[in-house]
Task: structure prediction
Amino acid sequence: MFIKNIDKDVLLKPLQIVTGVVERKQPLPILSNVLIEKTDSRLCFVATDLEIQITTQLTDADQKGPDAAITVAAKKLQEILRVVPDGSKVSLDIQDSRLQVKVNKSRFSLQTLPAQDFPKVQEQLEQAEKIEVEQGQLKKLFGMVQYAMAQQDIRYYLNGVLLVIDGASLKLVATDGHRLAFTSTMLDKEYAKKEIILPRKTVNELIKLLGDGKEKILFELAENQVRMTFSDIVLTSKVIDGKFPDYERVIPNYTNHLEMDRLAILQALQRAAILSNEKFRGVRFVLTEKNLRIISSNSEQEEAQEDMETDYHGIALDIGFNVNYLLDGLNNATAQTVTFSFGDPNSSILITVPGNEEFKYVVMPMRI
Amino acid sequence: MPLALVDCNNFYVSCERVFNPRLEGKPVVVLSNNDGVAVARSNEVKALGIKMGEPWFKMEKIARQHGIIAYSSNYTLYGDLSARVMSILSTFSPKQEIYSIDECFLDLDGFDPQSLMTYGQIIRQAVKQSLGIPVCVGIADTKTLAKLANHCAKKGLAGADGVCDFGRLNDGERTVLFASIPVGEVWGVGRRITEKLLTMNITTVEDLRTANLERIQSQFSVVLGRTVNELNAIPCIELEEAGTPRQQIMVSRSFGSSVTCLADLSESVTYFTTRAAEKLRHDGSVAASVCVYIRTNPFKEDDPQYQRSMIVPLSRPSDDTTKLVQAALAGLKAIYRSGYNYKKTGVLLMGLQPKATIQPALFDDPLEQAKSDSLMHVMDAINKKMGQGCVGIAASGIRQRWAMRRERKSPNYTTDWNELPVAG
Result:
């Protein structure tokens, strides 16, 4: 017997952790599989897409059988365990290169591939820089920038988040060329300068797996690879080999400010967005003394207009934006109030949080 | 809300006849690019039983027997004459939808219903007199019915003289007429739908008009449901003025002779991309990606066959010929395999949007953009003044061995100073 009488949920949890990296369509059949290794009473689960590898383990699985290892279709096994009744006990047995799953009176026989064929990621972590951050804090930081990552852009270096370690500060930057999100935090001590780009998929998996508390995550940053170790999980990922654009150059410094209640302007924009053009998503900001008017219209000449009282005293402005970009920033900047800073109608705007230098969101305008 | 569909008769053939009156009354066909198949037939050719899409090599014998005169397609001429036809037709209604190169809808709302037949005749005479091109006019309450009325006008099914107004039919006459027309003649009912309708015992227009709407919608789609409504004079398809801007631009040609090497393919892809980019700038649009495709000749069954396409996205939407060519050639290089006889390449510009709506980007170099814009502007200006292809990308080649066969093309009577028709 490979694994005997284990609680369904105990087995399901590590599977759910690792299967996030398994792609639906795979060039190599074995990449659809999860590697399950049993050594003494320890159960180890590994899945990879060759770029990212996630490993997690059950340290005390209370299994007394002989050591063994097998690979089996990750999503199928996960699906089976998900739908069997809660509280069920599960047994796995390897017979004639098939995995027999027994739960109550159900039997499932799954194909397997040999464990020694599983392409584990080669670790290349010599001279890696090591830093530690609280998981909850890191999750929050990623949440503040991840939406600005590009998606399948041919500028491949934009399809991820730039991580900068600069002295005692950690900076995260994401941009798709039309908007840029920046956030930073202080680290526990000074580190050597280091910049890496984490791929989009790694960022998404990491956010899913990070806890909310003060438990630490250990980052090991090497030239081509990064390893993250936290709560029984080891996530190893390639980094994007490319030069991230000079983000500091495009973060403007304006003197023309508008302070707004975040939720109030967020809701006004959500309403205006309904009648903005389905394709271009444009909304106009018309700023006058003590008033912000938000206007949108679509291809059917339907219109929405929102007037908001403000404390604005700067120059009158008429400037257009992709409303989705504004909504992204405002949804993820978790503060009571936000500050919009304007240049001229053809320049970017800067969204910040008053009294907080650690979040900056830059959005390019669009002609409407 | 009556509207009219005006459709030119055998348009390409009529265009050839405008400048060559000797062709009147004689059998004339216009062949597709590379002189492949018949794409337009005069009534005399139709009477000989030659089908649309019939390959030229198959009809050459009958052609010799009956003295059929064949022309290579001259889209420059047809495009120019089409613009002239549309411009004349636009004077007959405040609202016009140009539906294709040879047909348009005219809104006749507010016109006296009794005089529409006469009005149709005036339209026909105006086009005939100004341009020498015969048209037919179908008048009805919906676009689908107007299309059908036009079909009836052409076939002389309801009244002669090339004008048909369904408003003049009473219910009984309409039922008889619709019951005599096969359902496949209805706008939007293609071969596949016709076959499926047959299994439901719907064979004539009248069958479809009186079919159960819910059943049609559940068996087919809401689109065919709209067609049924439209046949019952309930308008569902609106008149689209000024046309929605093009969503994509395609330039593709088959070669005069088969091409094997990457160099020749690159030349043709560069040339096609150049032409597509010119159309793009003419529309005031930019493209987000370029699709390039190549294929061998599927009719040469003994040859090894290969075809492939690839979409190459641009880092930002562009109308710059050099950027688009770069992308197209990168795609071509990736899909090219040696050892095949290629017959056709094509370039498709995708993700078009008006240039004015480009979202400016954070890392753009405004200087580079301005340089590109003025270069394209100069190129277009020179080519407009001195003739198409006067300046271009050198990679499109000089000799162009792959150029298509157009052995029977008529002169560009209306668009080239050197080819103006001479009277006398």
Summary: The radius of gyration of chain B is 24 Å. Chain B touches chain A through twelve residues (CB under 8 Å).
